[in-house]
Amino acid sequence: MTAAKAKAEAAEPTAAEEPKAVPECGAPHYLPALAHIRCQRDEQDPDRAPGTPDHQHRHQIGDTLYQW
Ligand SMILES: [Zn+2]
Prior knowledge:
Helix content is 13%, strand content 12%. With 68 residues, the protein is largely without helices or strands. It is extended. The chain starts with a helix and ends with a strand. The structure holds zinc ion. The site of zinc ion (ZN) has 6 residues, from loops.
């Protein structure tokens, strides 16, 4: 299976797409009909105190701003 492993490694993407410097929150909208709408804000602080409410998620498409 050495050949298969080498092939898998060769298939690694070669910096075609740079990862975003700041990860996005990506939380889906709470309405199922808008589940394709995902939060564009920065990822929430993983070190925030327990019980701290989520930030207000938001997603903007042109002039349309979704907040939930
Ligand atoms: Zn969010």
